[in-house]
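Bug report

Summary: structure tokens for Autotransporter outer membrane beta-barrel domain-containing protein differ between web form and batch submission.
Environment: batch mode, default settings.
Steps: 1) Submit the sequence below via batch. 2) Compare with the web form result.

Sequence submitted:
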Amino acid sequence: MADNYTNLVVPPNSSFVLSSGDTVTGTNNTALRIQRNSTVTLSNGPVAGPITINSSGTNGHGIWTTTDGSGSITGTSLTFGSGVTTNISTNGNLSYGIHLGAGAQTHLVFEQGSTTNIRAYLGMMLGASAAATPALTNDVVLRPNSIVNIDAYQQPGIFQGISMSGGASLHLDAGSQLSVHVADGGTTGYDRGILVSQNVNTGLGGILTSDAGSLLTIDTHSNNQSDGLYTINTGRSDLRGVTQITTTGDLSAGAFLYADPDMTRLTISAEGPGRSSISTSGTESEGLFIYRGHALIGRTDVSTTGDTSAGAFVYGPESSLVTEDSTITTVGSGSDGVVVHSGATVSGSDTDIAVSGAGSIGLFLTGSGTEQTASFSGGSIASNGTAIGVGGGTGGVSLDGVTVKGIDWLDVKSASAFRALPTVSFGIDQVADDGTLVRTSLSPVAVVAAGSTTANVTARNSTLTGAAFTEPGSVSNVTLVDTLWTMTGSSNLTNLINDPSLIQYTPPVGDPTVLASYKTLTVANYVGQGGEIGLNTYLGADGSPSDRLIVDGGTITGNSTLAVKNTTGPGALTTGDGILVVDTVNGATSVPTAFTLASDYVTEQGEPAVVGGAYAYTLHYGGVGANATDNNWYLRSDAPSSTPGSPEPLYQPGDPVYQVYPQVLMALQSLPTMQQRVGNRYWTEPAVPEQVFCKDPTQNFRCTVTPEQASYYGDGKATIESNAIWTRIDGLHGHYEPRTATASMDYDMDIWRLQAGLDGLLYDAKDGAKLVGGVSFHYGRAVTDVSSVFGDGSLRTDGYGFGGTLTWLDSTGFYVDGQASLSWFESDLFSDAAHRDLQDNNGGFGYALSVETGKKIELHDDWTVTPQIQLAYSNVRFDSFTDTFGARISSGGNDSLLGRLGVSADKDASWKDEAGKTRRSHLYGIANLYYEFLDPSVVEVSGVGFETGNERLWGGLGVGGSYNWNDDKYSVYAELSANTSLKSLGDSYSLNGTAGFRVKW
């Protein structure tokens, strides 16, 4: 049966047990009062249900351990037994759920599996006596799997969920849970979830600790000044488990530290599973407020949502904050991520700071004549406005492996130019022996006076995005080491060291042809130590707009690289200074070796160059003429061989390749002669003679032809071959030095082609004339090497297609041969100079027409001559494309009308083999003249036309032959020839060969 007690007092030096189901009631008094050296145990008994402890009235505590009674104090023990549930409730002013009185030297244990619920004005008071030496302290331990819930409800005045001082300690073992909830205390405030303070007399502070794997939850709800964890003076909070702090009132810090500056007094570091968190939502409510002393947070997420708040506010030269693997987030207007104030120090590793409210700064360093420092490794700092601000005094920022992003990644201004920080004022709460609070007001956070600002910023292995701004009168010293700065807006710094990092200007906003669309970086002094500056430039004529580096009144030293990206500039010939990219003003100077160009390629003269349209630009120190010593840096597109007043263009390395492209296509689809295509088709057979030479002197050595001898002769009529299946292969090697080439060059070309066809008789006239038609398929490859002062290159082109032929041959030796073909091409273009592909798999199309006519004229002894003329038209085009440099390449008018005038000397023979089959041979030599009637081919490169035309008049010599057997069933044929331009013999030439095989059907 459960017991009921009223105003229960446990006398000194005694023991007492409360069992489950028992009730203790305090009427206008403490419910359970435990005097010195006693032992009280709350345990499970035979009756189910919780132990209930209720009290009412002012100072009516739930449980109070005191020093009442006689004898020395050896300690009081209060144990909440394993598995027991206890409900403690008080309903009076200044009443505590559990009050471990000064000098009671109480050892309070919440055993494993116990659950304790406390609802009181102040959940738990842990104090110590000033009289004893050393002081008699109280300690509280939550064993694994124990749960303590404290609900401090509304009362006027100052109240806490837990108050600790005088060396008293509270410890959470792994697996234990402590929850502290503080209700709305009205408008007076000064309420704390947990107060870790010191005794006003002894100076001894409370000690709050937790092991990894424990859970501490602090939740405060007040109109104002209701802090979560308040650690001051000699108090110490060392929390290694998961800690979750939430505050909702104005002027309420999640965790507040004002403590001994000689040691770390606040640690919130989740070392086991899970992460800790600190969250505030009121105006001017900091997640962390460190006024004095050293704090560390690890694996902790800090967030604020109120206006004019801060994720962490660290104030004064005796203050520091260390963050590890943590996040700090603010969303309120004017709410900074981390404020480093008046000589304070902050360092962080793998910490992410993000602010999104208007006027909020991610990391803000400020002070009046003080030096404040912040260093971070890993993590990020992000803001919708300023990521890092330095205002007042000297701010030192060190970044290593940090990502920084903001509209301004860095702002350096006087403090008055920034949003004014709130003048935070607060009190220091100490605890008297009787448990009452003694408040001492501190001076508010000082307003930073107007004055000059110096920022010393070093970023290593970091990524910076945004502009940088330095107010006149302030100084910014920035060193970038292995860092990327993406500059999103025009910026200015005092001194900049680029060692070696990349400063990349973002593309222009607006019309790229207007200078106002581009950005500038203005510095007093620039030192390059192998760094790079990435500029956007409209590559065009002189004075084209560009991003710029401006050095104002100082010097440019060291060495850096300028990387230029073309912003749709079509390219043009510069005739003056060129395009300004580095501007020295107000007497600034530059060493002549300060910059080199990050090039698309290196010219034949060894100069780095970038490509704009059809032109290449090189970097020059100084202008031309009177501006040669102006210390500026320019991009120019005139060739080094240019003479003053007569600039010659410096073309990009793809131009020679592009301009020869149509010539390659036309060569690959060129049409052969009829003889080259199918061999000899026209045979003249000797008639049977009346007599032949013999050895009979009686007949004067001239005998009548016998029937057997007559079988070896023909009938004297011409034989014209018609029906056949044939195939042939031909090859060409040529060297060409064009008579016309916009970008001077020569080229070597190797071609091989395979052609196969079927010919059939369409008409057979009575007089022996024949009309033969045919169809064919062809495939070929051309490999071309281009040599030019503007850069060597190459092309590889595959072509395939089909064609048709129509040939008239009559018995007199006259013929007319017509050809037509269609071809499709695929080409790869490569620049040797730039060591890159210009374009892969570029498609093309062409067609060719040819007509040839000639006539065999018989001489004697089976010799004939064949005068002939041929006219061939060719037209090609390729698909427009944008090359690797951004230039637009398109095909212009690319056609050819080539005339050939030739004559061949032919020797025919025919005979019967041992099987009685006819065999024939045809040998010939041929001489040709070639003439090109049309204008040179044209290719447009970003609107600039490039012409190529080979010499018009060529000559050629060749030899060839055909051999038939098996009564003309089979035939092989071949030709070798050499051609050369006649203007400069041997400068341009081609060596040609073809061989074929034909089968009659």
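Above is the batch result. After comparison, the two runs are identical; trailing whitespace caused the diff. The longest helix spans residues 655-668. The mean pLDDT is 91.
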